[in-house]
Specification:
2 copies of one chain form a homodimer.
Chain A: H1 3-13, E1 22-26, H2 31-47, E2 50-57, H3 64-78, E3 81-86, H4 89-92, H5 98-116, E4 121-123, H6 128-141, H7 145-148, E5 154-157, E6 160-163, H8 171-180, H9 195-212, H10 216-245, E7 246-250, E8 253-257, H11 258-261, H12 266-281, H13 289-298, E9 304-308, E10 311-316, E11 319-324
Parallel strand pairs in A: 1-2, 1-4, 2-3, 4-6
Antiparallel strand pairs in A: 5-6, 7-8, 8-11, 9-10, 10-11
Helix pairs in contact in A: 6-9, 6-10, 10-12
């Protein structure tokens, strides 16, 4: 099977593309995103696509401007519309993680361009290796089934659809293909996300696990896939349940009828709470297992109050009230 | 919190003991099981328990008879009924794994004694470390959510209940306690189960992960716990669904109405198939992800036939027929 065929299979399996779509390609200039660009050129005719290439210059490394110029020149030689933006990430960085700040600014840029060009789909060049590393990072740092999904082939953020057509392709395969096709790219240094931790995973953890199971990459990828199915199914059930137990909601609050959740399976209850928090706060980031345990504890009480990251939970008159503490939710994954 | 208190907490949390119960304690003579024996002596009065100590001599190591004598003498000094059996595991070993053979013979012995003494509960000395190592082994070798549960605090096999009251205690804590209490035990060499693999996990993988997350043991233990909840909930739903779609069943076969499973969520379908196979075959061992994928594939066909480990699956006249290939199911976990 050729690489193009494999990408087409993934596109079909996860329903990533429709005919006659406009697609924004996020190209850093590194091997994965350059391969994605050239692979899109191969399948452009099949789907009758319109392509726009975007590049976000984080201004973090000395090669940053070179990378931008490389992608710009590449697009002009391929006759593809190119849009870029430069932002010095360090200026926006407020003691949180630099990687997280960079990611937020980058996704903001992607969404801004998508909105201004009225394009719904944004394609990112994450590979199977990225999924596997993410799954391992999550296992080590702590995660539930939701986190075990790793990186999804398709995700929705603020009305836009992010697709990842290389999600089933190993990085090594991409590098071999680029070499065979004589396609040049920039050295992969933009990859500063969680650099220390991810490098440890790639250079120490994965090689050790590979000795115990030479097939470890497929093994972890399958775990991510089954976790996705599991999470998707559970969420569907929890969503139905949440709509039954809601007693009211507004811009940044939600009220749950305590009487109606008494007999729920504890796992379902947890999932319903997760969805309720996502509705109120936009996400469940910075909430971990212990936070959920403390919610379960106050459910027993008649009157109680709990301060969680970005969220207040109150028990009053047989009602569970969730209130968001932030006006705008600013973080994407 | 003292060790005894922590064990009592786990007993309450997982509902492991009732008052006035008879309990069989499986004691190898190693630190964990000797600690379990002494801990049971401390809580004996609280629950008004009757204790019987059993020891299975695998005859695999030169110290095997010494271990048996040690436990026998210990029980006689503590005035506890003692039952042992010696079997040369190697004689029963047929090219399958020696560890697996030993486990089967050992559990057979426990069940035999439980039946003959009319005792329902058998207590095993698995620790938190065993859970964590098992979870890691499963992740590395490949697993779904079911396998991520690790070792359960309570499991039912052939009408008997196996409990594991030390499941939340770290091994180090047990060793410290034994030292403080001046309790002697045999060196822990009976632990030959999956020895090579488990040792790699303990000596190489865990220390590496501990560098990345000093809290890795709690992290993995929490993953096991949330996976248990998840699996328990999913199984409950799948069980209801299976009873709706069954068209017939017998000693070693089961018939499912294909029309009724068409619209099931693919994940639920997979879980229903898992339960159906467990009913027919006694377990889903030796079946992996690819086997389930091949079942999903033939569901599309009008007529088909699939040979799986220990099981035949047939599609005929809008029916899915599952047939067991083995007369007796012999394996426990």
């Amino acid at each position: 099977v050729t690489l193009v065929e494999e990408v087409l299979e993934a596109i079909e399996r996860y329903n990533l593309l429709k005919r006659k779509e406009k697609v924004i390609l996020a190209v850093s200039g590194g091997p994965d995103s350059v391969a994605m660009l050239f692979l899109f050129l191969r399948i452009k005719e099949i789907f009758n696509l319109k392509l726009v290439c975007v590049h976000f210059n984080h201004g973090l490394r000395k090669e940053a401007d070179e990378d931008e110029k490389f992608v710009k020149d590449l697009c002009s030689s391929l006759d593809i519309k190119f849009v870029s933006e430069k932002k010095n990430v360090k200026e926006f960085f407020k003691g949180d993680s630099l990687e997280q700040t960079a990611r937020i600014l980058r996704y903001d840029f992607f969404l801004k361009i998508a909105n201004s060009l009225k394009i719904k789909k944004i394609s990112l060049a994450h590979t199977k290796d990225d999924v596997i590393e993410t799954v391992l990072m999550r296992i080590i740092r702590g995660t539930g089934i939701q986190g075990l999904r790793g990186i999804l082939p398709l995700s929705k953020i603020k009305g836009k659809i992010f697709i990842r057509p290389l999600i089933e392709i190993e990085k090594k395969r991409i590098l071999d293909w680029l070499k065979k096709e004589k396609i040049s790219y920039q050295i992969d240094t933009t990859n500063f996300e969680d650099k220390f931790f991810r490098n440890k995973i790639r250079l120490n953890v994965l090689p050790l696990l590979e000795k115990l199971n030479p097939n470890i990459k497929d093994t972890l990828f399958n775990l991510a896939r089954i976790s996705s199915w599991n999470h998707n199914f559970i969420t569907q059930i929890a969503q139905k349940e949440l709509s039954k137990i809601k007693r009211g909601e507004g811009e940044n609050f939600l009220i749950i009828d305590l009487e109606k959740i008494k007999d729920l399976h504890p796992f379902l209850l947890l999932q319903v709470l997760r969805l309720a928090i996502e509705e109120v706060k936009g996400n469940t980031r910075r909430l971990d297992w212990r936070h959920f345990e403390s919610i379960l504890k106050i459910l027993q009480k008649k009157r109680s109050y709990l301060n969680l990251p970005g969220l207040i939970i109150e028990i009053r008159e047989k009602k569970l009230i969730l209130k968001s503490l932030q006006g705008v939710n600013f973080r994407y994954l």
